[in-house]
Amino acid sequence: MKKLILKRFVLFEQALLRKHYHVFLLLITLVLLSRESVHAQQKTITGTVTFQQKPLTGVSVKLKGANTGMSTNEQGKYTVSLPTGRGVLVFTYIGFLTKEVIVEGSTTINVELEEDKQQLTEVVVTGYGTQKRESITGAISTVTSKDLEKVHGGSQVSTGLAGKLPGVTFRMPDGRPGGGATIQVRNMGNPLFVIDGIQQDKRQFDNLAPSDIESITVLKDASAAVYGVRAANGVVVVTTKRGSRGEKNVINIDTYAGFQNWSRFPDVVNDSYEWYLGKADAEMNNGGTTTVTKEELAKYKEGTAPGYQSFNWKDFIVQKNAPLYQQAINATGGSDRINYYFSGTNMFQYSVLGREFTYGRKNINANMDANITDRLKVGIGINGWNEVRDNPGIPGGDDYNLPRAAILWNRPWERPYANDNPDYINDIGHNESNWAYNNKKYGGYSNDRRRYGSARFNAQYQIPYIKGLVAQGSYSYGLEDRLHDGHEYTYKTYTYNPTDDTYKATGGSINPWRERRTQKIEKNNYQVGLNYNNTFGKHTVGGLLISERYDVRDKEVFVHAVPATNVLPLIYFNTTDTYNDRDDQQARIGYIGKINYNYANKYYLEFSGRRDASWKFAPDKRVGFFPSVSGGWRITEEKFMKSLLGENSKLNDLKIRASYGVLGDDDNGILPTDYLAGYNYNQNGYGILDGNPIIGSRDKGKPILNISWFKSKILDIGADFTMFNNKLIGSVDYFKRLRTGLRGTKYDIVLPSEIGFNLSDENINKDEQAGGEISLAYNGSAGAVTFSVGGNVGYARSKFTASYKPIFFNSWDQYRNSAEGRYKNLFWAYDVVGQFQSQEEINNYPINIDGQGNKTLLPGDLIYKDLNGDGKIDGYDERPLGYGRSADGTNQPIINGGFNFSVAWKGFDFAADFSIGSMYSYNQENEIRRGFSYNSGALNTILTDRWRRADAFDLNSEWIPGKYPALRFNVNSASSVNKNSIFWLHNVTALRARTLELGYSLPKSLIGKINIQKARLFVNGYNLFSIDNLSKYKVDSEVQDTNGLQYPQNSFVNMGINLTL
Amino acid sequence: MKNKFIIAIATLFVFSLGCKSDSDYLDIKPTQVLSPELAFSDPTQVLSILADLYNRQYDYPRLTEWVTFGDFNESFYSENGQYNNYHGNSTWGFRGYRGPDVGGRATYFWTPWDYTYIRELNLFMERCATATALDAATKASYIAEARFLRASYYFTLTQYYGGVPIILNSLEFNGTDVTSLQYPRAKESEMYDFVIKEAEELKLLLPANSNTKARATKGAALAMESRAALYAASIAKYGATTPSVSLSGGEVGIPAGMANAYYTTALKAAEEIISGSAGAYSLYKKQPGNLSENFAAIFYDKTQNNEVIWVDDYALKFKRHGFTQVNQPRFGAEEEEGGRINPSLNLVQSFEKLDNTFAPLATNDANGDYVYYTNQQDIFAGRDARLGGTVIIPGSSFKARPVDIWAGVQLANGTVISGGERGAQKVLPGKTVPEQVVGFDGPINGIGNTAQTGFYIRKYQDPAIGSGQRGVGSAVWLVRYRYAEILLNAAEAAFELGQSSVAAGYMNQVRARAGLVVPLTGGDITFDRIVHERRVEFAFEGQYFFDLKRFRIAHQVFDGVALNKTDLLSNLSKATKRSTQPYSLLPYKYYAPGSPNNGKWIYKVDLSNIVTASDNWQLGNYYSEIEPDILTRNPKLVKQPNQ
User: Fold this and answer.
1) What is the ipTM metric for this complex?
2) What is the helix (H) or strand (E) element at residue A457, kind and residue range?
3) Which of B119, B181, B609, B637 to mutate to test the interface with A (most CBs of A within 10 A)?
4) Alpha-carbon span A798 to A776, nearest angstrom
5) Of A137, A473, A859, B149, which is most buried by a Cβ count within 10 Å?
């Protein structure tokens, strides 16, 4: 059959050459009909598939070239019918080498499979291609679908990556429905995402359906250089599932449903008496008088009279056990000429803030590759998603903000409904945080919908006569559409008047707010090139030449109106008062080249380079060249090593590798129009002259002609090894990234400010990032139990190396403000040596703590360390005590890691994985540092453990010690709370349980009868606990907002089922 | 034809890549940038640049930033986040501390040093002059306007810094020579001379049209001249009382001998406007039946308003501000906010009685008993009508809504019953059901947006419905010069030149409009009178700050000593009276069933316990510090005195 096709192909070519198109058409028909055109006697083959004489269940057995096949039963037996009585049987089983047996005569074919000891033959996706794992010479980590599928803890892909990839740092400050995590490669900054060969942004990455992902590969070093001017912060390469050739056609159903609860959230004093006592305490501490009376306090303690009761706002707002669910279905398979993967996924997530704050997304994904001829392969990929963030419209930029803040802002005697009558929202004086109004009925709505559709077409043609040379090309088009409709209604709040039993409208808003944002982002990506790969004896040579163009156009219109009614949704011209229009474009061009060579799978060498151009810069500053080189040496392949280690070596494979390259970063804060001279039109609003609105224009200032991208040089030295019969796999990496060309000012020439312009920045400053990773994994078995254990840990910290001739006014300035040779992102704070224990101690204390002769201090106040010994505490006494945020606002852990454990026994499987983050800081501020600050509401329960007088009303009563300093009412300038100190700053180390999953696969004997190949039930927990030093503040260890009021990550409990039909 | 597929693929990619060269592909036309040539190619486009230049004058206070209205204890900052910045700090620093920014860094108010703006003004004039597409008349009028803006901005810089380098053309750097770009500070007197000279030339170039408000006119130029000359004169005269506030080079301080000439210039410029030669300017008197409303209307009435000379104008939908939104009475406001500026009792009690005498508000009688008022407003009766036009007092109304300001219920035994939220309800003794015990506008100590001093601000509030809506905003304009100032400038200059009765004549015009119809005589005009009249007429218009500085009395008014109640209530007419802390006047409802006073109002003078600091003006505060970075960059700049 194979020969027949080949023969026909020769005719095919000949026909083309001779321009005999009719023959050509005829031949195509023949090719298509060939399968049917040959008939012969049918034959049935049976046999048993074994490994080490034990039967193997579920081994795929199929006739080469056929679409269908079957798998072995529990006894390892199979039966295949051969229509022609001839052919080649293919046996495939994960973890084993594929075996092909030619059917010749016998109808019984027993097969012994060999374990695939060379797990190393695994193929890894790298920049613009794939490589066998053994030939990898860069620092590349991969996570595959196997690991990703067990995460059911959020809607965005990034949320599932904690601890899974060595060198990838993770932090998820906001866990709301649809929230994503901040991930960085070696803390280098925002990475570039490449999805199926196309450069994308993080949103595209996050909105993939996790179950559609085949693998995520992270290029951490010079191996990213082929992505040129956007590669400096590492590249995350994602490959979606495509189906394999010669694989059975199966349908997979993966569905789960679960519940979410906040991991942690601050608690608030919800006892009116405790609150008023705190107020009395705080006011007395202010100035010795209080407006709170003892009589009133007694009534609050009693808590029964109207106006004196307590109300628990947190319980009112937070509705526990918010559901989420996901259904994913896919069909995949392939023949020897076509492979396909079609999938649809639906996910929906509620929030614990009632049930109206939701997120939902639907994904479809389709990939198909077809060999049209033996030389020409074409593929198409279609990806689409539709996500909706839907919630009540609440004043303020973030609709989630007020409901969360309300938990700490609303005071305990305030009640949501007037006279507790749910028909009337109570006027509590600050009604925007009255949860009774934070809903779609009264508040309004916000519906933010993003939709994306992309289609990719690619083709590869094996060029005749040159073995291994392939011409390839692809075109991709993506369109993202955003439609955000928001409407905040007018509403009324009421005061109940008991004297005449009436409800009077005393508050609310008569301001309607209606907005619509429409955005279209179009992306084009064109790639064309040549790929070469061939082996000559022991020499394997590969190469790549690609030209890539990539453009984005982002258009957006924002309209705001003040509608006349709450009930009708359309926007009318006469009520419109804002219309903002935007149209931004990007364009980049890259020429990529890559050569790799290996000798006897022992020595590896790779060169790559990219000539890249970015539209952002002045025409003569656009082009850059980004080369890299890397090499590897598999020592264990050396004869001397083999003889040294002996036959039964514990060390199976050891490769030492190193890489070095130059990468670029065009995201350096420069605007694409900065190189142009002229006037910015309409960027600084209107001027009103003679009563008429005039759009303003402003001089852009001196054009910036000298700035280009950052240059980043990465050195990586690492080793990969396998031991103990390949059961232990590990790798170690050290890296150092030097960035040059960071923006800075040259101080050789200091221009007076009076000339009205500055010399533009230049690419002169330097920094470096250094660290490393270790990862280990062990796969083993004991009897019927198979298990695996693995872990990784990485360290990555950034240091400012040098600026261009820095100038300091004095040594203090240098100490405080110099960055030279220092770690970046330090957090400066005061050291605390204790707390005052008594008024006498304050009176006799020689150091001026508060700048006012200590007369504002009370027992319990913090004693700051007088670092410079000048007898007073001021800015000169600060020193670096923690980790601050980097320029992009993130505060990623410097140490990251994870470990996992899985075990399987018969039908049961259990998996657990954990993540570790350390060396980052959390600074307690605002509502979790001060009492009564916002709306005079907040009194965090942690602040009840405070220094206070035994009798709040008696200035002479004795002090009762507590943890926190004595409260003040609305005095933020109190010495203990107005400075950042180590008392409020916490350097965090957290160990967090991520996935804990228990599964059970129903036995084949049961489900085989109903034609189900696999049925697995599972219970899954995600984020169930965290062991860290922020638990006592009730703050999630990854929350970033210093007031602790961010929407924290959720704990999930899910149940689900995996079915393979 | 070797292989059709190769051709097919090649065709596909040629097609998809198109014929664009690399540079064509990368050259993306900007959507919001005009080249300098295009920008000066037609008058409409040039006006667009001019509109932006108008927008960049440095105003203090600013309608877009309510905290700029609150300083110097003329009011209380009624917003929780601001207490600390203004009531817990005792000095302003040498640059006018305004609080920390988002990143926690200190920010300052008194630091306009925008030489980029000056450069762009210079560039504008130069590019205008050489533009070929503009006719001569258009060029001349645009250039005159830019010149006015430049002079006005140099005047602003002088108010903060004294002498600064005067740069009158766009400078370029040739790559090597820095020293030729280092300009020293001009003398303070030279700054004023420059402004006066420019004004004298510009008044001949600019239109004499009192209907043009937002653009430069002859009236605006003369108003600027009169104010600048007056400032120069008073600094020359009163600077002598603070000799250490000067620099030997004259960058700060003006010799006393120059005072008279400046006063003469100030008077002459003012009288040129008064004479009508700059246009038909007059005091706003459209509502003779309600003098308080009439006074407030100067700021919101844009129709045929002959008082206003030069403004920063606003228009709904295009350029608007939220001043009313954040400051109007909280109760019944369009939004869940308002009430941030609470005028202090310090200011309120300084409005005179109609018989031209000063007196504290009568809270207690001679025996120390409370005075019981039937109506809340009664305690303010018989005072300067400007009080009601500047401040919203208890019992008055705004936007036809009565304000509900009362702090609690006082029982006969002295016990006060109040509540923790606006409109709180409690059960009064002898009653069974709860009733309201505190106003819906407060005051509640420590609860922002309530009238914590007992007052809200009235000036610059927009009475239009919807002006308090976040999505709508207000288009009330910011008045930079108005006719009343011209009269008071003339009065002050005349007084200083020894023409007291002339001074009284001008001042009486302004006072009569406020209902103070008993004329002052020449003998009544004193320094204290001059200072006082400006304080009440121009409250919340930014003049108070500069008056305190040029009269060199700020260090006496803010002497760092806590203001006690006795001090507060005495010497109301004195210009140097201490005002280191903002006081409140809180109304209470008297509850004593059976008593004739039951249900009447009493008032208490109070100081919020949030006010913990006493303002302390240092001599170094008279001139803003020049930032170290600016000094470093130009070694020819000398430092300010006392810093």
Assistant:
1) 0.93
2) strand A444-462
3) B609
4) 25
5) A137
